[in-house]
Design goal:
Strand order of the largest sheet: 17-14-18-22-21-19
Oligomer: single chain
Number of strands: 27
Number of helices: 7
Distance between the termini: 30 Å
Largest sheet: 6 strands, mixed
Number of domains: 4
Helix content: 10-25%
CATH superfamily of the largest domain: MoaB/Mog-like domain
Radius of gyration: 30 Å
CATH architecture of the largest domain: 3-Layer(aba) Sandwich
CATH class of the largest domain: Alpha Beta
Structural class: alpha/beta
Length: about 400
Protein backbone atom coordinates (compact mmCIF):
# COMPACT_ATOMS: atom_id res chain seq x y z
CA UNK A 1 0.00 0.00 0.00
CA UNK A 2 1.16 3.51 -0.80
CA UNK A 3 0.70 6.38 1.64
CA UNK A 4 -1.88 9.10 1.06
CA UNK A 5 0.85 11.64 0.33
CA UNK A 6 2.63 9.36 -2.14
CA UNK A 7 -0.64 8.54 -3.87
CA UNK A 8 -1.45 12.22 -4.31
CA UNK A 9 2.04 13.01 -5.58
CA UNK A 10 1.82 10.24 -8.18
CA UNK A 11 -1.60 11.39 -9.32
CA UNK A 12 -0.56 15.04 -9.62
CA UNK A 13 2.55 13.99 -11.52
CA UNK A 14 0.23 13.05 -14.41
CA UNK A 15 -0.75 16.73 -14.68
CA UNK A 16 2.65 18.42 -15.09
CA UNK A 17 1.08 21.44 -16.76
CA UNK A 18 -2.31 23.00 -17.19
CA UNK A 19 -4.61 22.13 -20.05
CA UNK A 20 -4.86 24.40 -23.08
CA UNK A 21 -6.17 27.95 -22.73
CA UNK A 22 -9.34 29.43 -24.14
CA UNK A 23 -10.92 32.86 -24.04
CA UNK A 24 -14.26 33.44 -22.33
CA UNK A 25 -16.38 36.57 -21.86
CA UNK A 26 -15.87 38.26 -18.53
CA UNK A 27 -19.43 37.42 -17.48
CA UNK A 28 -18.64 33.71 -17.83
CA UNK A 29 -15.40 33.82 -15.86
CA UNK A 30 -16.66 32.94 -12.37
CA UNK A 31 -14.90 29.84 -11.04
CA UNK A 32 -12.59 29.61 -14.03
CA UNK A 33 -8.80 29.52 -13.64
CA UNK A 34 -6.59 32.06 -15.40
CA UNK A 35 -4.22 30.59 -17.96
CA UNK A 36 -2.07 33.73 -18.15
CA UNK A 37 -1.38 36.82 -16.08
CA UNK A 38 -3.97 39.55 -16.51
CA UNK A 39 -2.30 42.94 -16.83
CA UNK A 40 -4.00 46.27 -16.18
CA UNK A 41 -4.85 48.12 -19.37
CA UNK A 42 -5.44 51.37 -17.53
CA UNK A 43 -4.60 53.17 -14.30
CA UNK A 44 -7.15 53.19 -11.49
CA UNK A 45 -8.10 55.77 -10.55
CA UNK A 46 -6.92 57.46 -13.73
CA UNK A 47 -6.64 60.83 -11.95
CA UNK A 48 -6.79 62.18 -8.42
CA UNK A 49 -10.36 61.84 -7.15
CA UNK A 50 -12.21 62.99 -4.09
CA UNK A 51 -13.05 60.38 -1.47
CA UNK A 52 -15.74 62.59 0.09
CA UNK A 53 -18.37 65.19 -0.71
CA UNK A 54 -17.11 68.66 0.08
CA UNK A 55 -14.83 71.30 -1.41
CA UNK A 56 -11.54 70.99 -3.28
CA UNK A 57 -9.11 73.76 -2.36
CA UNK A 58 -5.60 74.65 -1.36
CA UNK A 59 -5.05 73.72 2.29
CA UNK A 60 -3.13 76.97 2.78
CA UNK A 61 -6.23 78.94 1.74
CA UNK A 62 -8.34 77.30 4.46
CA UNK A 63 -5.83 77.15 7.29
CA UNK A 64 -7.87 79.27 9.71
CA UNK A 65 -11.38 78.61 11.03
CA UNK A 66 -13.80 81.29 9.84
CA UNK A 67 -12.05 81.83 6.52
CA UNK A 68 -14.50 82.72 3.77
CA UNK A 69 -13.88 81.38 0.23
CA UNK A 70 -15.90 81.89 -2.95
CA UNK A 71 -16.90 78.81 -4.98
CA UNK A 72 -15.37 78.81 -8.47
CA UNK A 73 -17.25 75.83 -9.88
CA UNK A 74 -18.33 72.20 -9.48
CA UNK A 75 -16.70 68.82 -10.02
CA UNK A 76 -18.88 65.69 -10.17
CA UNK A 77 -18.15 62.11 -11.20
CA UNK A 78 -18.16 62.11 -14.99
CA UNK A 79 -18.27 65.91 -15.18
CA UNK A 80 -15.13 67.38 -13.67
CA UNK A 81 -13.96 70.96 -13.20
CA UNK A 82 -11.33 71.48 -15.87
CA UNK A 83 -10.19 75.06 -15.39
CA UNK A 84 -7.42 76.37 -13.18
CA UNK A 85 -8.36 76.85 -9.56
CA UNK A 86 -7.80 80.52 -8.73
CA UNK A 87 -5.98 81.19 -5.49
CA UNK A 88 -8.29 81.78 -2.56
CA UNK A 89 -11.23 79.90 -4.09
CA UNK A 90 -12.76 76.41 -3.82
CA UNK A 91 -14.59 73.99 -6.07
CA UNK A 92 -17.71 72.16 -4.92
CA UNK A 93 -16.78 68.48 -5.32
CA UNK A 94 -18.47 65.13 -4.90
CA UNK A 95 -17.23 61.61 -4.16
CA UNK A 96 -15.46 60.08 -7.16
CA UNK A 97 -15.05 63.41 -8.97
CA UNK A 98 -11.70 64.61 -10.39
CA UNK A 99 -9.72 66.87 -8.08
CA UNK A 100 -8.60 70.10 -9.83
CA UNK A 101 -4.81 70.06 -10.38
CA UNK A 102 -4.20 73.09 -8.17
CA UNK A 103 -6.14 71.66 -5.19
CA UNK A 104 -4.30 69.69 -2.52
CA UNK A 105 -7.05 69.03 0.05
CA UNK A 106 -10.73 68.25 0.43
CA UNK A 107 -12.69 70.19 3.01
CA UNK A 108 -15.54 67.81 3.79
CA UNK A 109 -18.94 69.44 3.80
CA UNK A 110 -19.48 68.57 7.49
CA UNK A 111 -16.58 70.88 8.32
CA UNK A 112 -17.94 73.86 6.40
CA UNK A 113 -20.91 76.20 6.27
CA UNK A 114 -21.86 77.07 2.72
CA UNK A 115 -24.41 78.69 0.46
CA UNK A 116 -24.52 79.77 -3.16
CA UNK A 117 -22.16 82.63 -2.46
CA UNK A 118 -19.36 80.67 -0.89
CA UNK A 119 -18.21 78.68 2.13
CA UNK A 120 -16.92 79.33 5.62
CA UNK A 121 -14.24 77.04 7.04
CA UNK A 122 -15.31 75.45 10.33
CA UNK A 123 -12.45 72.97 10.70
CA UNK A 124 -9.37 73.38 8.47
CA UNK A 125 -8.43 70.40 6.29
CA UNK A 126 -5.02 68.74 6.16
CA UNK A 127 -3.13 68.72 2.89
CA UNK A 128 -3.69 65.45 0.99
CA UNK A 129 -6.67 64.45 3.14
CA UNK A 130 -9.60 62.68 1.42
CA UNK A 131 -7.86 62.52 -1.96
CA UNK A 132 -7.43 59.20 -3.74
CA UNK A 133 -4.30 59.59 -5.80
CA UNK A 134 -4.07 58.40 -9.40
CA UNK A 135 -2.95 54.76 -9.46
CA UNK A 136 -3.93 54.12 -5.85
CA UNK A 137 -5.56 50.82 -6.84
CA UNK A 138 -3.40 49.80 -9.81
CA UNK A 139 -1.39 51.22 -12.67
CA UNK A 140 -1.35 50.40 -16.36
CA UNK A 141 1.02 47.52 -17.08
CA UNK A 142 0.87 45.99 -13.59
CA UNK A 143 -0.09 42.33 -13.14
CA UNK A 144 -3.43 42.49 -11.39
CA UNK A 145 -4.31 38.79 -11.46
CA UNK A 146 -1.62 36.11 -11.83
CA UNK A 147 -1.98 32.91 -13.83
CA UNK A 148 -3.47 30.13 -11.73
CA UNK A 149 -6.01 32.40 -10.02
CA UNK A 150 -9.45 30.85 -9.68
CA UNK A 151 -11.75 33.77 -10.26
CA UNK A 152 -14.10 34.85 -7.50
CA UNK A 153 -16.55 37.80 -7.65
CA UNK A 154 -14.02 40.38 -6.43
CA UNK A 155 -11.41 39.21 -8.94
CA UNK A 156 -13.93 39.41 -11.78
CA UNK A 157 -14.66 42.99 -10.74
CA UNK A 158 -10.92 43.73 -10.74
CA UNK A 159 -10.56 42.26 -14.24
CA UNK A 160 -13.43 44.47 -15.40
CA UNK A 161 -11.87 47.56 -13.80
CA UNK A 162 -8.61 46.74 -15.59
CA UNK A 163 -10.67 46.93 -18.83
CA UNK A 164 -10.71 43.24 -19.82
CA UNK A 165 -13.95 42.16 -21.51
CA UNK A 166 -12.50 38.71 -22.27
CA UNK A 167 -10.29 36.52 -20.06
CA UNK A 168 -7.76 33.78 -20.91
CA UNK A 169 -8.72 30.74 -18.85
CA UNK A 170 -7.72 27.10 -18.74
CA UNK A 171 -10.03 24.72 -20.52
CA UNK A 172 -12.23 22.95 -18.00
CA UNK A 173 -11.12 19.33 -17.54
CA UNK A 174 -13.61 16.73 -18.75
CA UNK A 175 -14.18 13.92 -16.23
CA UNK A 176 -15.98 10.81 -17.42
CA UNK A 177 -17.81 8.95 -14.65
CA UNK A 178 -18.44 5.22 -14.97
CA UNK A 179 -20.40 3.31 -12.33
CA UNK A 180 -20.41 -0.48 -12.50
CA UNK A 181 -22.50 -3.11 -10.79
CA UNK A 182 -25.40 -5.43 -11.60
CA UNK A 183 -26.92 -4.42 -8.28
CA UNK A 184 -27.38 -0.75 -9.22
CA UNK A 185 -30.42 1.13 -10.51
CA UNK A 186 -30.86 4.83 -11.12
CA UNK A 187 -32.65 7.05 -8.57
CA UNK A 188 -36.39 6.96 -9.18
CA UNK A 189 -36.37 3.37 -10.44
CA UNK A 190 -37.81 0.47 -8.47
CA UNK A 191 -34.94 -1.72 -7.25
CA UNK A 192 -35.21 -5.45 -7.72
CA UNK A 193 -35.00 -7.84 -4.75
CA UNK A 194 -31.18 -7.75 -4.73
CA UNK A 195 -30.58 -4.22 -6.00
CA UNK A 196 -29.81 -0.80 -4.51
CA UNK A 197 -30.10 2.76 -5.78
CA UNK A 198 -26.88 4.21 -7.23
CA UNK A 199 -25.64 7.34 -5.45
CA UNK A 200 -21.89 7.68 -5.92
CA UNK A 201 -22.01 9.25 -9.39
CA UNK A 202 -23.91 12.28 -8.14
CA UNK A 203 -21.36 13.01 -5.42
CA UNK A 204 -18.52 12.71 -7.95
CA UNK A 205 -20.36 15.03 -10.36
CA UNK A 206 -20.55 17.57 -7.55
CA UNK A 207 -16.84 17.13 -6.79
CA UNK A 208 -16.04 17.76 -10.46
CA UNK A 209 -18.21 20.86 -10.68
CA UNK A 210 -16.88 22.26 -7.40
CA UNK A 211 -13.30 21.87 -8.57
CA UNK A 212 -13.96 23.59 -11.90
CA UNK A 213 -14.37 20.64 -14.26
CA UNK A 214 -17.05 19.25 -16.57
CA UNK A 215 -18.49 15.79 -16.16
CA UNK A 216 -19.69 13.16 -18.60
CA UNK A 217 -21.97 10.51 -17.12
CA UNK A 218 -21.32 7.14 -18.76
CA UNK A 219 -24.23 5.64 -16.84
CA UNK A 220 -24.52 2.31 -15.06
CA UNK A 221 -22.60 -0.54 -16.65
CA UNK A 222 -23.17 -4.22 -15.82
CA UNK A 223 -20.44 -6.44 -14.39
CA UNK A 224 -19.06 -7.61 -17.74
CA UNK A 225 -15.57 -6.86 -18.96
CA UNK A 226 -16.73 -6.24 -22.53
CA UNK A 227 -19.39 -3.75 -21.41
CA UNK A 228 -16.92 -1.92 -19.19
CA UNK A 229 -14.37 -1.71 -22.01
CA UNK A 230 -17.03 -0.26 -24.35
CA UNK A 231 -17.75 2.46 -21.76
CA UNK A 232 -14.03 3.18 -21.37
CA UNK A 233 -13.76 3.65 -25.14
CA UNK A 234 -16.66 6.12 -24.99
CA UNK A 235 -14.67 8.17 -22.47
CA UNK A 236 -11.63 8.14 -24.76
CA UNK A 237 -13.69 9.14 -27.79
CA UNK A 238 -15.18 12.04 -25.84
CA UNK A 239 -11.68 13.30 -25.07
CA UNK A 240 -11.98 12.83 -21.32
CA UNK A 241 -9.01 14.10 -19.36
CA UNK A 242 -9.93 11.89 -16.40
CA UNK A 243 -11.90 8.67 -16.12
CA UNK A 244 -13.42 7.92 -12.73
CA UNK A 245 -14.72 4.41 -12.21
CA UNK A 246 -16.99 3.61 -9.28
CA UNK A 247 -17.09 0.15 -7.79
CA UNK A 248 -15.45 -3.11 -8.79
CA UNK A 249 -12.05 -1.90 -7.59
CA UNK A 250 -11.26 -4.86 -5.36
CA UNK A 251 -10.23 -8.41 -6.36
CA UNK A 252 -13.38 -10.45 -5.89
CA UNK A 253 -14.97 -12.55 -8.63
CA UNK A 254 -17.30 -9.69 -9.51
CA UNK A 255 -14.68 -6.93 -9.31
CA UNK A 256 -13.99 -6.57 -13.02
CA UNK A 257 -12.99 -2.94 -13.35
CA UNK A 258 -9.25 -3.48 -13.02
CA UNK A 259 -9.14 -6.30 -15.62
CA UNK A 260 -11.29 -4.20 -17.95
CA UNK A 261 -9.02 -1.18 -17.54
CA UNK A 262 -5.96 -3.31 -18.22
CA UNK A 263 -7.69 -4.79 -21.26
CA UNK A 264 -8.32 -1.23 -22.45
CA UNK A 265 -4.61 -0.44 -22.16
CA UNK A 266 -4.24 1.05 -18.70
CA UNK A 267 -0.79 1.19 -17.16
CA UNK A 268 -1.45 0.67 -13.46
CA UNK A 269 0.46 3.14 -11.28
CA UNK A 270 -0.76 1.84 -7.93
CA UNK A 271 -3.61 0.03 -6.26
CA UNK A 272 -4.45 0.25 -2.56
CA UNK A 273 -3.74 3.22 -0.33
CA UNK A 274 -2.92 3.04 3.37
CA UNK A 275 -6.07 4.92 4.36
CA UNK A 276 -9.52 4.38 5.82
CA UNK A 277 -12.00 4.69 4.19
CA UNK A 278 -10.95 4.41 0.55
CA UNK A 279 -8.19 1.79 0.63
CA UNK A 280 -8.99 -0.06 -2.65
CA UNK A 281 -8.35 2.84 -5.04
CA UNK A 282 -6.58 2.43 -8.38
CA UNK A 283 -4.67 4.93 -10.41
CA UNK A 284 -3.19 4.69 -13.85
CA UNK A 285 -3.36 6.09 -17.37
CA UNK A 286 -4.84 5.00 -20.68
CA UNK A 287 -2.85 7.08 -23.12
CA UNK A 288 -3.38 10.71 -22.09
CA UNK A 289 -6.47 9.88 -20.01
CA UNK A 290 -5.86 9.66 -16.26
CA UNK A 291 -7.79 6.97 -14.42
CA UNK A 292 -9.00 6.97 -10.83
CA UNK A 293 -10.69 3.73 -9.82
CA UNK A 294 -12.71 4.55 -6.71
CA UNK A 295 -14.30 2.05 -4.32
CA UNK A 296 -18.00 1.26 -4.47
CA UNK A 297 -18.74 2.15 -0.87
CA UNK A 298 -20.19 5.66 -1.10
CA UNK A 299 -18.30 7.24 1.79
CA UNK A 300 -15.04 5.79 0.47
CA UNK A 301 -15.60 7.19 -3.02
CA UNK A 302 -16.57 10.64 -1.66
CA UNK A 303 -13.51 10.83 0.63
CA UNK A 304 -11.27 9.73 -2.25
CA UNK A 305 -12.90 12.44 -4.35
CA UNK A 306 -11.98 15.07 -1.75
CA UNK A 307 -8.40 13.90 -1.36
CA UNK A 308 -7.45 12.93 -4.92
CA UNK A 309 -9.98 13.87 -7.61
CA UNK A 310 -10.41 17.51 -6.67
CA UNK A 311 -6.65 18.19 -6.46
CA UNK A 312 -6.15 16.47 -9.83
CA UNK A 313 -8.78 18.69 -11.44
CA UNK A 314 -7.23 21.79 -9.88
CA UNK A 315 -3.80 20.72 -11.16
CA UNK A 316 -5.20 20.29 -14.67
CA UNK A 317 -6.57 23.82 -14.32
CA UNK A 318 -3.10 25.12 -13.50
CA UNK A 319 -3.78 25.91 -9.85
CA UNK A 320 -0.40 26.17 -8.05
CA UNK A 321 -2.09 25.20 -4.77
CA UNK A 322 -3.53 21.97 -6.14
CA UNK A 323 -1.48 19.75 -3.83
CA UNK A 324 -1.67 21.95 -0.74
CA UNK A 325 -2.47 20.31 2.57
CA UNK A 326 -6.20 20.95 3.25
CA UNK A 327 -5.91 20.25 6.98
CA UNK A 328 -6.49 22.81 9.71
CA UNK A 329 -6.31 22.59 13.50
CA UNK A 330 -9.18 21.81 15.86
CA UNK A 331 -9.71 20.50 19.39
CA UNK A 332 -11.16 17.09 20.20
CA UNK A 333 -14.40 17.17 22.15
CA UNK A 334 -14.29 13.43 22.88
CA UNK A 335 -11.68 10.70 23.33
CA UNK A 336 -10.38 8.70 20.37
CA UNK A 337 -8.80 5.22 20.42
CA UNK A 338 -5.33 4.52 18.98
CA UNK A 339 -5.05 4.11 15.23
CA UNK A 340 -3.56 1.26 13.20
CA UNK A 341 -1.30 1.31 10.12
CA UNK A 342 -3.73 3.23 7.89
CA UNK A 343 -4.37 6.97 7.88
CA UNK A 344 -7.92 7.45 9.12
CA UNK A 345 -10.46 10.01 7.95
CA UNK A 346 -13.20 9.94 10.55
CA UNK A 347 -16.49 11.74 9.95
CA UNK A 348 -17.02 14.40 12.61
CA UNK A 349 -19.21 17.28 13.69
CA UNK A 350 -17.86 20.74 14.51
CA UNK A 351 -18.92 23.23 17.17
CA UNK A 352 -17.43 26.75 17.03
CA UNK A 353 -15.53 27.81 20.13
CA UNK A 354 -17.41 30.27 22.32
CA UNK A 355 -14.18 32.19 22.98
CA UNK A 356 -13.31 32.53 19.31
CA UNK A 357 -10.58 29.88 19.48
CA UNK A 358 -10.30 26.61 17.61
CA UNK A 359 -13.53 24.69 16.93
CA UNK A 360 -14.27 21.52 18.86
CA UNK A 361 -14.84 18.33 16.91
CA UNK A 362 -16.55 15.07 17.81
CA UNK A 363 -15.92 12.02 15.65
CA UNK A 364 -19.05 9.97 15.00
CA UNK A 365 -19.38 6.67 16.79
CA UNK A 366 -20.31 4.89 13.57
CA UNK A 367 -17.66 5.14 10.87
CA UNK A 368 -18.90 2.47 8.45
CA UNK A 369 -18.03 3.48 4.89
CA UNK A 370 -21.49 2.64 3.59
CA UNK A 371 -23.35 5.16 5.76
CA UNK A 372 -24.15 8.28 3.77
CA UNK A 373 -26.42 9.75 6.42
CA UNK A 374 -23.51 9.99 8.85
CA UNK A 375 -21.34 11.69 6.23
CA UNK A 376 -24.14 14.07 5.21
CA UNK A 377 -24.45 15.16 8.83
CA UNK A 378 -20.71 15.70 9.25
CA UNK A 379 -18.94 19.01 8.83
CA UNK A 380 -15.44 17.62 8.58
CA UNK A 381 -13.08 14.69 8.43
CA UNK A 382 -10.89 14.12 11.48
CA UNK A 383 -7.47 13.08 10.21
CA UNK A 384 -5.70 10.42 12.27
CA UNK A 385 -2.16 9.55 11.11
CA UNK A 386 -0.94 5.95 11.05
CA UNK A 387 -0.02 4.53 14.48
CA UNK A 388 -1.52 7.53 16.28
CA UNK A 389 -1.78 6.91 20.01
CA UNK A 390 -5.05 7.29 21.92
CA UNK A 391 -6.22 10.89 22.12
CA UNK A 392 -8.20 12.62 24.83
CA UNK A 393 -10.84 15.32 24.81
CA UNK A 394 -9.03 18.65 24.73
CA UNK A 395 -6.15 17.38 22.60
CA UNK A 396 -5.27 19.14 19.36
CA UNK A 397 -6.17 17.40 16.10
CA UNK A 398 -6.29 18.02 12.36
CA UNK A 399 -9.47 18.26 10.32
CA UNK A 400 -10.56 18.78 6.71
CA UNK A 401 -13.68 20.93 6.47
CA UNK A 402 -16.04 19.43 3.94
CA UNK A 403 -17.61 22.81 3.16
CA UNK A 404 -14.38 24.68 2.44
CA UNK A 405 -12.13 22.44 0.38
CA UNK A 406 -11.36 23.52 -2.21
CA UNK A 407 -12.76 26.96 -3.03
Amino acid sequence: MVSVREALERILATAPQALAAENVPLAEGFGRTLAHDVVARRTQPPFDVSAMDGFALRAADAAQPGTRLPIAGRSAAGAGYHGNLPAGTAVRIFTGAPVPPDADAILIQENARYDDAGLTVVEPPAAGRHIRRAGLDFREGEVGLPAGTRLNPAELALAAAMNHPVLPVVRRPLVAILATGDELVQPGAVPGPDQIVASNSFAIMAHVAAAGGRWLDLGLVPDRIDAIVVAIRRAEEAGADVLVTLGGASVGDHDLVQPALVAAGMELAFWKIAMRPGKPMMHGCIGAMRVLGLPGNPVSSIVNGVLFLRPLIRALCGDPRAGADPCEPAILAADLPPNDVRQDYMRGTLVPASDGGLPRVTAGRTQDSSMLRVLAGSGCLVVRPPHATAARAGDACQIIRLDRYPF
